[in-house]
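[audit] Reproducing an earlier prediction to check determinism. Same input, same settings, fresh worker. If the tokens differ from the archived copy the diff job will pick it up downstream; this log only records the rerun itself.
[audit] input (395 residues):
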Amino acid sequence: MNGFLSRRRVTFWQGVFAVLLVGGIYATFVRFYYALGGATHLSDSFPWGLWIGFDVLCGVGLAAGGFTLAAVVHIFNIERYKPVLRPAILTAFLGYLLVILALMYDLGRPYRIWHALVMWNPRSVMFEVAWCVMLYTAVLGLEFAPVVFERLGWRAALRWMRFVSIPLVIAGVILSTLHQSSLGSLYLIVPHKLYPLWYSPLLPMFFFVSALCVGLAMTIFESWHSSRAFGRQLELPLLASMGRVLTVLLAVYLSLRFLDLYHRRVLGLLLEPRTETYLFAVEILLMLVPMALLLRRSVRFDPAALYLCAVMVVLGFVAHRLNVTVTGMERASGTSYVPKWTEIMLTLSFIGLGFAIFRWTAKHLPVFPAERPAPAEPKPIPSRARLAPQPVGKD
């Protein structure tokens, strides 16, 4: 009996997930019973909040590691990154599925989500984003399919997937590039509503480059947690090389941001003591500090320091997306938006659901490559004295 109870003992993180799941189910009831007005603090003057800013805009960006590593491995043929490709594809696939799930909560009439398939509006940025997200989610599903086929032993299907893998990767890179940048294009139509520290004609480029940065950071983040959760050896040389590439991308991103502020003549806003200035500083520091740290080889080859830098990049990316969608829009709207507890609970439950599905999938499917066995210790060579023939004694 005691052995049974010890096997059934609930861990701390299982308890946290259970609380988030129960809270998410109740928040789901509130959302669909009382509609958006009863489940959120959104209004006609401020219609987009946490569910768009984090669940959609951040969710799409945080899943960017899939198309980045797929292009590196399959198009640029850099095979050494192959061990971390499948986990990145799984992370991206789950990320996009959760984005679609979050949209079902944010849309006023979610049962009409299929209208984009038949009611075309090619001049709309949201139409392009909707189609790219749908198509890229399908591409991610096909890119992840070989993992399932290997588990089931479907060799014919595996051969067919290898035949179409390169066209799939090219299609995925094109689709992801389009909608990662188009998410920034959504805010180009509100130049007088978005605070000047974040509004820019280069917003599509900022969104795309920042997605590349956070895609690499999420790969490091996921690899570190997977090594601890599954007792695997950390692919430190690969992650360290990613850290070096991440340093360059962060330098490009930050340079573009400040050159844009200079050419738009709004650098003076950084001297004004207001909430926007402080939150902009937090966002930039969360990108600048890891960039400076990753310049050092000792930091890149230190697992804890590398992980900390990846976390800061992820937080900086989230801060930028939330600053664009919330902070930068509040002043012009004349309202102060604070998410309702149901909005926060649903967002946390989506995150917990993503972690749980990833863990279950990685446990039951060949997501990670088989670890090579440690080389056997060489047998001791016998000494010459032992190899020398022994004299035969006389009876």
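[audit] rerun output stored. Observation attached for the diff report: The chain has one domain: 41-367.
[audit] end
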